[in-house]
C-alpha cells in the first residue's frame, strides 16, 4: 500500500491524474477494510484522494472526503488539535474553490482564532492562516478586513525575517493586491517597486519571480495611466 501511495503521488506530480486517482482509491479501499474508517492511515488516504480529485476538478468529491476527515478528527482529537485545524484548512480551501466563500471564511476564522490563542500572532502557522482568511475576505469584497490581516502578516515577517526575505516580499505583494483592489493604487505601486527592486538585486533580471514582479507593477502603472 505504501508503494502504491508513493506511486500515486509521483503520478499526480507528473500530471497523470487518472492513474493517480485509481491508485489512491485502491489504497483507500484497502485501508478502510483493514483499519476502519477513522484510522489515521485511512484518513491520510482520504486526504490524498481528495487532493487528486481537486486537481481533476471534482470539487464536490474532494469536499465530501475533507468533511469525512474533519468529522473524524473532531470526534477523536477535538476542535483545537493541529490535525483538526489542518482539516479545516483543507475543507475551507475546497469550499473557496467551489465559490462557497461564506463557509470558507467561517472555517478560516475558526482556525485563526485557535492559532492566535495557542501559538501567538507571529507564529508561521498563524501568519499563513491570516493570509488564507485575507484571500477570502478580498474575494468577498471586504478589502478593509483583508488589508488589516495582510498588514499584520507583513509586520510579523518584517520583524522575524527582515525586509528582503522571500516571505516578506510575498506579504508585500499580497498587501499591494488588496490596496490596488481598494483603489489605493499609489500604495500598491510603492510596495511593488520595493519587491521588484529586491528581487532584481537578489535574484537577477531573468528570474521568474522578478518577471512576475515586473508584470504586477506594470498592471498597477497601467491603472494609474502611466
- Strand count: 0
Residues in helices, as a percent range: over 70%
Strand percentage = under 5%
Order of helices and strands: HHHHHHHHHHH
Task: Quickly give the structural class.
Answer: mainly alpha
- The whole-angstrom Rg is 20 Å
Mean pLDDT: 95
Total number of helices = 11
| Uncertain spans | none
| Alpha-carbon distance between the two ends | 58 Å
Which descriptor suits the 3D outline?
globular
- Largest sheet properties: none
Provide an overview of this structure.
The termini are far apart. Helix content is 85%, strand content 0%. With 226 residues, the protein is mostly helical.
Structure keywords:
11 helices
Nutshell version of this structure?
With 226 residues, the chain is mainly α. Helix content is 85%, strand content 0%.
Layout: helices, strands, pairs:
Blueprint: H1 2-14, H2 17-35, H3 40-56, H4 59-77, H5 82-98, H6 101-119, H7 124-139, H8 143-161, H9 166-182, H10 185-203, H11 208-224
Helix pairs in contact: 1-2, 2-3, 3-4, 4-5, 5-6, 6-7, 7-8, 8-9, 9-10, 10-11
Amino acid at each position: 500500500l505504501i508503494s502504491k501511495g508513493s506511486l500515486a503521488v509521483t503520478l499526480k506530480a507528473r500530471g497523470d491524474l487518472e492513474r493517480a486517482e485509481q491508485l489512491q482509491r485502491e489504497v483507500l479501499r484497502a485501508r478502510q477494510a483493514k483499519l476502519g474508517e477513522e484510522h489515521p492511515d485511512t484518513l491520510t488516504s482520504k486526504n490524498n484522494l481528495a487532493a487528486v480529485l481537486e486537481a481533476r476538478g471534482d470539487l464536490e468529491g474532494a469536499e465530501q472526503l475533507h468533511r469525512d476527515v474533519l468529522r473524524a478528527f473532531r470526534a477523536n482529537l477535538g476542535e483545537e488539535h493541529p490535525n483538526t485545524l489542518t482539516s479545516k484548512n483543507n475543507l475551507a480551501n475546497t469550499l473557496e474553490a467551489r465559490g462557497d466563500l461564506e463557509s470558507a471564511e467561517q472555517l478560516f476564522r475558526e482556525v485563526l482564532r485557535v492559532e492566535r490563542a495557542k501559538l501567538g500572532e507571529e507564529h508561521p502557522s498563524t501568519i499563513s492562516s491570516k493570509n488564507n482568511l485575507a484571500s477570502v475576505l478580498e474575494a468577498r469584497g471586504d478589502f478593509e478586513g483583508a488589508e488589516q490581516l495582510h498588514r499584520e502578516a507583513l509586520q510579523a515577517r518584517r520583524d522575524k525575517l527582515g525586509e528582503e526575505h522571500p516571505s516578506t516580499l510575498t506579504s508585500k505583494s499580497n498587501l499591494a493586491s488588496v490596496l490596488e483592489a481598494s483603489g489605493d493604487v499609489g500604495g500598491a505601486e510603492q510596495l511593488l517597486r520595493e519587491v521588484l527592486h529586491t528581487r532584481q538585486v537578489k535574484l537577477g533580471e531573468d528570474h521568474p519571480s522578478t518577471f512576475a514582479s515586473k508584470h504586477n507593477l506594470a498592471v498597477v502603472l497601467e491603472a494609474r495611466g502611466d
